[in-house]
Structures are given as C-alpha cells and as structure tokens.
Design a protein that fits this description.
Number of helices: 5
Helix content: 55-70%
Structural class: mainly alpha
Distance between the termini: 86 Å
Length: 170
C-alpha cells in the first residue's frame, strides 16, 4: 500500500493560490500607484491571472470596483478643430464617391450588354448554323428560339455544337 501524500499536494495548492493572490494584489497596487486605468482585464493581464479567477475572489473584486471609480475612464481624445475634415471636404469626397459609383454602374451595364450580345450570337450560331459571311440566315432555315426539338416528339435533339465536341489532338 502506498503512503498518503495528499497533504503535500494540498500544501502545494495552497502555496500556489497564495502566490497567485500576491501577484494580483501587487499588480493592483502598482496600477493604482501609477494611475493606470483599472479594469478586470487590465489587472488579469498585469498579474498573469484569469479574469474569471478575479471575479471569483470577493475581496479583490470589491477592491477593483472601488479603484475603478477612483480612476474613471478617460473619454477618447477628439482631434483638434484644425485637424478635422471640413463640411466642404466631406461633400467633395461624397461627390467623388458618387461619380465613381455612376462610372462603375455604366461600365457594368456596358459589360452586361456585351455579354448578352455575345451569348445571343452564340445561340444563333448553334440554332441556325454559321452564316457563311452573310448577315441573314438561309431562307429555309428554321427560326427556333429555345431548345432544339426533333420532329413532333418534343424531345431535345442531341447537342452537337462546337462547345460540346471533343477536340482532336493535332
């Protein structure tokens, strides 16, 4: 049977807890002496302990809350008037952004139109066949818009367009 060494483990845990408490108290005193802003997060980082541990210690929690009121948070610094953007400057930036948006919308519309034309021409070639240099289709060629259908069966015809053919190696 092994000897009961639990008292050593318990003593080590007590020492570690006391050292942790000393680190937290020292960090809190150091921050108070230097006038640093005191928050649970700042104390936990300075002491190397977790915030949840600080919240769980009633005396440290009360001290942090008391010191927090003594050192209130400073409001964020507002830039001096001469460094702030003027209303005129902001309006010019807004006008420039609006003009850029209009330009991009125009470009997008032109690209959409070009894509629609290219897709329409491709579809016409698939349906009607190549024009052989003419700009009008043959007189007897079918004027079909939509999928190719075979006879009266209303089944799509196998697509034999160039885009689906396998390329042979040269």
């Amino acid at each position: 049977m092994r000897a009961d060494n639990s008292r050593h483990v318990i003593a080590a845990a007590h020492r570690r807890a006391e050292q942790t408490r000393q680190h937290a108290v020292a960090a809190l005193r150091r921050m108070d002496a230097t006038g640093q802003r005191i928050t649970f997060d700042a104390v936990s980082r300075a002491a190397g302990v977790s915030r949840s541990w600080l919240y769980a210690q009633p005396d440290l929690r009360a001290e942090i809350q008391r010191l927090r009121q003594r050192h209130p948070a400073t409001p964020p610094q507002v830039p001096p008037q001469r460094q702030r953007a003027s209303d005129t400057s902001l309006l010019r930036r807004l006008e420039a952004a609006t003009a850029r948006i209009r330009h991009l919308e125009t470009d997008n519309q032109q690209l959409r139109d070009a894509l629609a034309r290219a897709l329409g021409e491709r579809r016409a070639i698939e349906v009607l066949g190549p024009m052989n240099g003419r700009d009008t289709p043959k007189k007897n060629s079918p004027k079909i818009i939509g999928p190719l259908l075979s006879g009266n069966s209303r089944r799509p015809v196998k697509d034999t367009s160039i885009t689906h053919r396998r390329r042979s190696k040269p």
